[in-house]
Request: fold
Amino acid sequence: MKIIPNLSVDCVVFGFDLTKLNILLTKRELRDPETDALLFTDYTLQGHHVLENEDLDNAANRVLKEKTGLDSIFLEQFHTFGDTDRIKNPKDMLWVKNIYPTVTNQVITVGYYSLVNSAKIHPDKKHEDTMWFPAENLPELGFDHAEIIDKALSCLRIKLSREPIGFELLPEKFTLSQLQILYEAVLGRKYDRRNFRKKITQLKYIIPLDEKQTGVAHKPAQVFIFSKDVYERTKKDKLGFPI
Amino acid sequence: MKIIPNLSVDCVVFGFDLTKLNILLTKRELRDPETDALLFTDYTLQGHHVLENEDLDNAANRVLKEKTGLDSIFLEQFHTFGDTDRIKNPKDMLWVKNIYPTVTNQVITVGYYSLVNSAKIHPDKKHEDTMWFPAENLPELGFDHAEIIDKALSCLRIKLSREPIGFELLPEKFTLSQLQILYEAVLGRKYDRRNFRKKITQLKYIIPLDEKQTGVAHKPAQVFIFSKDVYERTKKDKLGFPI
DNA sequence: TCAAAAGTGTTGACATTACACCCATGT
DNA sequence: ACATGGGTGTAATGTCAACACTTTTGA
Reply:
């Protein structure tokens, strides 16, 4: 299958480990083709060129499946990056010349972000060089991927403050504290525990189970599930008042 | 300047005539190259292929400048459309084959919307075949432009309910009723006049002038201006509570 | 003098914030 | 027994929704 040389997708994979927000990155190395000397090393998002006769969304799904093994997970297009000087860093130009000699110097990339429960990816097994980094503490990034991640995060924040998508980052059964930590981690603010619980428990689509946490060295918490079905049935698309 | 055959931008130009929300469309006709018989006619967004060595955002600005004469107006990228079957209607395939024979059958388009005060465009003069249509009552559209407009409108709604961008659609000096009608037209809901005014007048960046409407057959309204400067200085990026 | 939109305040319901103590479990 | 996070209520404040009459102008 031939690639489309001037069109790629990049996926910002967000994960939550019940403590903090993480981003999945892949190690990139460039070695001199003759001497094999290590020229540089850094990290990049999971990306690939779109293939001929492939829908954009499918390209993003394919990349995700290849890099994480996960299928049919939450995936949302957030922005397209098309400045002609996107690849301006000398190391990136060198890398492109070595790895994709057929690629033009004007590549636009469509950014997607996806949300996964970190526990579902075991990067050590399949892809040694693909690993989680805390969103707050990322390593050196290739290309314009720092910019792409910034934009992804700000789009995720807006989305999360409008729609209940946080559950995509949690195990199916979760506690209210885990949910609160998730919101705090993504939105970068704190919530009062009582007020948070009050708010959440009045939502009909967050359903308490007759089940408690086990194996924790403190009072076990009640577990909840999210019902997308109930949400879809009861949501009312109200837009905020003008700012 | 050569075009990039598989990459285009489409601009959804929103205008407000102090009454309702409008969208700028261009008439498209295809005639049989031999008999000159009219094969079909419909309307399309303002779009064009991106040029080699042109930034995406610049391409959108160029298209807008060419089609409306306007420069440096509000322009926001909202979504990229990249399904392989985007051009599936027979009339569209026919049109592409006639007009852009070099173009591949897999073209992705980056959607932008822009906001203009309708009064600033006099389509009759420059472009007879480019005209305003009420957003609520659009004619038959080519390609997937109905879908693109839907998405643009829903993105505009979300943006408008988060940020004060409505002023881009208004004359520099406006009345509170005009602002209210604008919000009602875009968001598709009604506001109580007293509550709306209460809310707006407490915003420091909407500044009353010592000036009144003239030439109206009723009590003249006070006029206001929007200060982007004051807004930028006083805004606090608060994200909503989880839904 | 009439028509048309401008302008103006109060009240009740609801949502948001702030805040402190006891509980159940594993070690 | 202790450390850890779970679970709970109330009062003050702020925000939102509903509602009707008078004013100013041009025609």
User: Anything to note?
Assistant: The mean pLDDT of chain B is 93. Chain B has two domains: 3-160, 172-234.
